[in-house]
What we know:
Elements: E1 4-5, E2 17-22, E3 31-32, E4 36-42, E5 46-50, E6 53-57, E7 62-66, E8 72-76, E9 86-92, H1 99-102, H2 108-116, E10 121-123, H3 128-140, H4 143-158, E11 162-164, H5 168-171, H6 180-192, H7 199-204, H8 210-221, H9 225-243, H10 248-254, H11 260-271, H12 275-283
Parallel strand pairs: 1-3
Antiparallel strand pairs: 2-9, 4-7, 4-9, 5-6, 5-8, 7-10, 10-11
Helix pairs in contact: 2-4, 3-4, 9-12
Amino acid sequence: MKPVLRRFTTNPQYSFHVRKDVGANVYSMWHHHPELELLVIRGGKGVHTIGDKTDTLNETSHLMFIGPYLPHTMSYDSKSGAKPVEAIVVHFSENLFGKKFMELPEAKLLIDLIAKSAYGIELIGNDTMKLEQQMFELFEADLQDRLFILIDILHRLARSNYTLVASQGFVGNYSQKENKRIDKIYQFTFDNFHRDINLDETASSVNLSKEAFCRYFKQKTGKTYVQFLTEVRIGNACKLLMQNDMTVLEVCYACGYNYPSNFYRQFKAIKKVTPLEYQKSYLSLPSRK
Length: 289
């Protein structure tokens, strides 16, 4: 199922969009948009899906930062007897702060945070309560104060503990630009994951021996290249399954697997469900506008 494209109209008095939502169905549509989304939500029980990752929602507060065109949705159980769903959601353009501001050395944390939002960010730890309070203050604030509150929220988020949500394979590009060599490895992988590639070929693409390449990649990413390649293939398989234009077997071969049994085993190891179960769970998501 392809995500619905949404667009947001900004009041001419404001440079970004902020609103308060109440009710269990406000985010039930599987959708994406060109704007960045900053969201704090509390109350309700259900699940939220960002990219290819689904997690449980409980009545505690959740703060998420979602990058442009990253599909997402939330589904609540209206019969759970949980507290009412209440949220503050902000949408703004990547160009909100202007080119000159983003070139300032003091903006580095903000630049890195926005780059990582391509995968979806979820706040973890003790900072959630403070940032939740600020998000509600942002909604109530006067015109003259809103931009400065937003900048402070993003600055605090950048310095807090958070986790990246969607897989690298699902997102389809590497937004943490550490250096040219690691970028080249990622690009080679995204360009060739659909066919049979090996360590020798990948190492040769960056002029390293296989042994040096394996050490380098593990040092830079904390995982083996084989693990990364598997994540890329499974992440892309998730996108194809969501689109529902191919059979599971066709998806298997399109993502570089020669043997369906290997595809099913690796898919279940990462997603905890079979490819068909994963596809059915997405096809059951609400698609109404």
